[in-house]
UniProtKB/TrEMBL annotation:
<keyword id="KW-0614">Plasmid</keyword>
<feature type="domain" description="Cupin type-2">
    <location>
        <begin position="50"/>
        <end position="114"/>
    </location>
</feature>
<feature type="signal peptide">
    <location>
        <begin position="1"/>
        <end position="25"/>
    </location>
</feature>
<keyword id="KW-0732">Signal</keyword>
<dbReference type="InterPro" id="IPR014710">
    <property type="entry name" value="RmlC-like_jellyroll"/>
</dbReference>
<protein>
    <submittedName>
        <fullName>Secreted protein</fullName>
    </submittedName>
</protein>
<dbReference type="InterPro" id="IPR013096">
    <property type="entry name" value="Cupin_2"/>
</dbReference>
<dbReference type="InterPro" id="IPR011051">
    <property type="entry name" value="RmlC_Cupin_sf"/>
</dbReference>
<dbReference type="Pfam" id="PF07883">
    <property type="entry name" value="Cupin_2"/>
</dbReference>
Amino acid sequence: MKTPRIMTLAMLLLANTMAFSSARAEQPLQRTDLLKNDIDVAGHEAVQVRVDFAPGVLAPKHSHPGEELAYVLKGTLEYQLEGRPPVTLTAGQSLFIPSGLAHSAKNVGGGKASELATYIVKKGAPLVVPAK
């Protein structure tokens, strides 16, 4: 009699654990740090990050303490750079974002989207600065 109850409890715990793991793995906007290294420019470093966007997700307006080179790995992303018309890029296309320029990015495609962001930034400064 106790064995079926124990089995049921074990299955419920396993199902809850799997659901929690799946929810954590599928975050709407996920940044994965890939590389951080000093460069020959005094006081600066190179940083490379993969950013994965769920469908419809917006990375709110922000800036960086240096230049960003955004390369779309997958999907379709719309970039809005302050004072400029929106730019829509698909996999294989790149965009240069000047230092300190406020911008946002949104997944406007039907599936997941990913970008490879390479930054040349001031060493020790926060990489992402939310726009005011």
